[in-house]
Amino acid sequence: MYKEHFFPVLEDFMKICQFLKCLPFRTDKRQRRVVRCSRARLDIFQGQCALSGLYMASLFLNLCLRESSTAERLQGFTFLMIYLIAVVGRWDFDRVNGTAQVVNMFMDFEEKSVKDLPEFGPTIIAKLMKLFAQLIQASVFVLIGLQTTLLIYFPCTPPFVQSMFCDQMGLRPSSGIPRLGVVILEAWICTHIAFSGVTCIIFTLFVGIVCILSYFRALERYLNRLITTSQSSRDLDGCIQFYRELQVLEKSFNAFLMAKIVPVLMFCIPTIQIMAQCVCINLHDQIGFPEFLIFPLFLVNAAIVNIFVFSLAAGIHNQSASLLQSMKRRSSETAGKKGGIQRREICNCTVLKIKFGSNFIDRATPLILQNFCLNQTMSLTLANSRKLVA
């Protein structure tokens, strides 16, 4: 699944990232693996991490200290959330190279464990995730292009660097070559932040979820075949062993995700959706073009992540519980000591889940997030209407 279906997409992303030198790893076409870059490239990446941290701090301070209208604050806060997700997703100042480890972990798992399962291939969900990855890549190009155009003609747009000096310097579109140099520098910083961040998040969390669901689907078909054909209990032992290997994969997967990537997505993506909805509904007449064009793009991508990706993450918990029940039913048909051993082994297996902190994503999480986003949008809309009436 990963090697045949998603690795070619990863190679397309890596062509851009290698040009920008914004990731500490590269793809090896001969080994079909992700390998560590040279020491010089690692030093460049580490410097970019430090620069991105300073850049995010400057954007945050600018939003907090600069006097701005409500429309400007919403606009600036949305950009801040977008780049915060990317910075957290790509952050690897200690050179742990967790993203590369996750990618190689899935491909090693498929080579050693999944190849024996029948009817294993790309699903409809996998094809949709591939399209979504390409949509995000196109969205990053559009974001950087619109942002650069915006800063050339409207340099005082918050929360970007030039807006810090607008009150003192009175910047205008014809302020000269130095201001154009600042625009190019800021575009370069945002480009390597955005591409490296989305690459790390897509090919660890998003693609990892789809792959685990595909493994579940293959195992479920194999179990159904065992039940209908009444095959020997030795085949059920193979299913139990495969599920245990999935547990090890899930533990390693969550160890990388639960500390930073999933929590920042759970916080920032609903926030982006709320802000984008408020701008599109309430402030469309206060924010002109081209800056307004970015917000429908933010809204579509945030809604897809909230509904599609988090629903898939919840599916890991649901399908895992269903698989354990199916294996228990199959073991109950095995008589004698062997059946008892199998039932105890299944009872020792735990339900797999995508964790964030001490919690996890279940079937109610996407609905709760959408309900929260809609409620907050309505509250802000009512507050804005009361303010206009007053």
TrEMBL record:
It comes from the Eukaryota. The chain crosses the membrane at residues 131-154, 193-216, 253-272, 292-316. Keywords: Membrane, Transmembrane, Transmembrane helix. This is Uncharacterized protein. It comes from Folsomia candida. The lineage of its organism: Eukaryota, Metazoa, Ecdysozoa, Arthropoda, Hexapoda.
